[in-house]
């Protein structure tokens, strides 16, 4: 590690572990508000309609300065720009990382090729196909209009589009979207009764077109189409979204039904590529364009805003403070909007697959912890589930709280209650409740002294638990595009700060490799090379299956 980078890390860690100049503990938040009535203004940042409030963290002015020094020492701007220039920043796979090119801005190149021109050509084909379907010019084999689109894919070929569809689909939208991911055929059995093969368009979404789950489900669904419509009609109900044009042809999908993208698009960053075709079809082309436009605006912000006002960079530095400064290895994502119910799942893949790394770019063990465990649920449901641990558990869990100012329903009372809960959770986590406050409250309620003594420790809240609040004016395709791109750039920034490759995922390979021989054993072969536990479980399964 370069000298100044090591010093910058040491400065951040020291600030997080030693009392502040005024004697307050570096983990406390309330004294920061007491000392600075302007803290909200100083620690909240607006960009293009989004508001990011970082004031309810224990980051002081000094800590923020040290974190920004760290970003400069890690050469975050130069490395970010190298990514945008199409350099092979995914070093283990020797690939460029150009999901920003997918938003249609223009001017992106990879390996000397004009990536933006290619993107424009594919987007043009996606648009023509979408309009032909949604306007009823392209129909199913029996002449009926398509009413449903089934996306078969997993991981990045499922989570992003499924999350966006869940957030933005309305009953008056062009097609009903369905997402089939798990190789568990119960998933297909659950979706199947809702579909009629005559009116269903099936997209096989797989970057590699080799993923076991997706190819297994694709075969099941293909057989269902053939059974319902006849083999000759199947092609008219299928399309493929992939980088592997050989495999899509082998599967029998006509060339004009294949929507390609390139290996410079990582799966978890791919919802803007052909992988988003289910969104264009189900939400309409205009909505898909708005999604790209929102991401484009966030790209411009990430590439040009100074670090001290750069939302994704500030979010990344806040994570560094929590993970590396305070040693907090978990983060909750709490969207106070039911439509964002799948956002935590999308962010789990985006962040944990990207940042779950233990070696640096050059293969040395990392000197600091890397990606935290990410989980979440929409508020207010989360409050009645796991928030107890976040309020009173032994390990503080920083949380992202996402609020939407204007709902799309006509029930203002419900919305006010939703927002009140979100704001109250953040306030309660920060404020806590002292012994004196609990005692006074119980005394006022007439509780007997012995009972107060008994319950006091249970009813005290430590407080000083950090939250970050992201406020959206409205949830629509544009703002959702901004939000998803915000988190993508946060991930890229953390990869730079931690010196790791945020764009590969070797950790998923071993399980895939070991599945092969175990599958053979389940098919009846003599198990070989298995550990005692796996052998025991195989035998138990065989006997339970009779
Ligand atoms: O699980 C690993 C992974 O490669 C993800 O990164 C990816 O999004 C997913 O599998 C699906 O891959 P594919 O799109 O190639 O089917």
Automatic annotation (TrEMBL):
UniProt GO molecular function: carbohydrate derivative binding; glucose-6-phosphate isomerase activity; monosaccharide binding
Localization in the cell: Cytoplasm
InterPro entries, per database record: G6P_Isomerase, G6P_Isomerase_C, Phosphoglucose_isomerase_CS, SIS_dom_sf, SIS_PGI_1, SIS_PGI_2
Species the sequence originates in: Belnapia rosea
Similarity comment: family membership: Belongs to the GPI family.
GO BP, sorted A to Z: gluconeogenesis; glucose 6-phosphate metabolic process; glycolytic process
Protein's gene: pgi
Coiled-coil residue windows: none
Protein name (Swiss-Prot/TrEMBL): Glucose-6-phosphate isomerase
Function per UniProt: Catalyzes the reversible isomerization of glucose-6-phosphate to fructose-6-phosphate.
NCBIfam families the record matches: PRK00179.1
